[in-house]
Amino acid sequence: MASKPVLYSYFRSSCSWRVRIALALKGIDYEIVPINLIKDGGQQFSEEFQTLNPMKQVPALKIDGITIGQSLAILEYLEETRPIPRLLPQDPQKRAIVRMISDLIASGIQPLQNLSVLKQVGQENQMPWAQKAITSGFNALEKILQSTAGKYCVGDEVSMADVCLAPQVANAERFKVDLSPYPTISHINKALLALEAFQVSHPCRQPDTPAELRT
Amino acid sequence: MASKPVLYSYFRSSCSWRVRIALALKGIDYEIVPINLIKDGGQQFSEEFQTLNPMKQVPALKIDGITIGQSLAILEYLEETRPIPRLLPQDPQKRAIVRMISDLIASGIQPLQNLSVLKQVGQENQMPWAQKAITSGFNALEKILQSTAGKYCVGDEVSMADVCLAPQVANAERFKVDLSPYPTISHINKALLALEAFQVSHPCRQPDTPAELRT
Q: How far away is chain B from the Cα of A121, in angstroms, using its nearest Cα?
């Protein structure tokens, strides 16, 4: 029997949360190995973890005998090997829109406000730097979603774009971004957080969530 | 008859180059509309362009009646609608590795050294900032490629990963990154630059390439 997939994850990492949502949506049973990005100077820098993922980042997923880094590559692999329920629409044009929104978040917003970049800009600049990255991305995203959204990012089916959206909104809240200019984003996020897969995978409910952040 | 795809592109944008390579590899005839990211304070900020791509970034591709932003979303759409020659292997595990390498570059390196971020870090910090982003990503990439590469990034077939690699190496050279610690990256890059699709799409050979940079 094939062994369970193993997810290397940090409770607060928005990219780890993307993968946890997808695993939950698809009903895939898995084990979590927490990698604490802060403790011991960052457990992602250990020799052992670097062998698994030379990028020294979470998430990484051990599955079917390989280890995949990069959350969107993981989502695409899950979609190809465990297609039900689907995270990409059938229509190629809608798939393109879903991927465009996913990439907008995964390449255009998140990398600019992740932990390693914020370390580089210095303590006092972290909040304005992260806020700028997120508002600039959300300004574009809000416009796009106004023409693509139904109940969720693209129509009424949960897709890869939604899997990226909710964790990015959580980051926005952490960095105290004013969400009032983004009614479409906020509305979709609310609908997503009502879904069980988004709840069980939530940063406040992980094995490595500190007691004071649990809800 | 369907109209030709229109690519909004800037000669030096590495993300635009990715799409130009894919269009060339797949033999897709297209028109280029140059968007100068410097001139007039940045033509990507014009009302007209923002309507096309609210992210105010190149590339954007008008094709089959839709406009797609984000280079990897464009590559995936081209792959799904014009599958020959393929940019993703048939085997799902190899596809995952190709996408992981592509995302490592597209989310893990390029966004940290793009024009808008470099503007933010200030003139005197630009070179060291860009060099750090690229060397940190290339350190990981070199390790990964040592176990995946044949003639190209993943085996002996040109893939999406290669489409991302050559433009990133060009950026590394522009930012004077020492490439000697990266023999596998350098070797693959050399093989790629020998291919016609990489040559015709090269930044030094675009309609908007300034005369002094043409070769």
A: 8
B175: domain CATH number?
Answer: 1.20.1050.10
Give the C-alpha separation, B192 to A152, whole Å.
41
Least confident of A83-97, B5-19, B110-124: B110-124
| Maximum CA extent, chain B | 52
Q: How many A/B residue pairs have CB atoms within 8 Å?
A: 120
Task: Give the up-direction half-sphere exposure of residue A183: CA atoms within 13 A in the CB hemisphere.
Answer: 1
- The token duo for A109 is 């917003």
CATH number of the domain that residue B18 is part of = 3.40.30.10
Q: Is A72 on the interface with B (CB under 8 A)?
A: yes
B112 interfaces chain A, CB cutoff of 8 Å: yes
B42-71 pLDDT, tens digit per residue, is 899 998 899 889 999 999 999 999 999 999
Q: For residue A173, which amino acid is it? A: E
Q: Which residue carries 């932003």 as its tokens? A: B69
B97 with A72: Cβ contact below 8 A: no
Is residue B102 domain-shared with residue B183, that is, in the same domain?
yes
Order the strands of the B6-9 sheet from edge to edge.
B31-34, B6-9, B60-63, B66-69
Give residue B30's domain range.
7-85
Question: Cα separation of B103 and B6, whole Å?
Answer: 25
Let me know whether B98 and B133 are in one domain.
yes
ipTM greater than 0.90: yes
If you measure CA to CA, which chain B residue comes closest to A79? B92
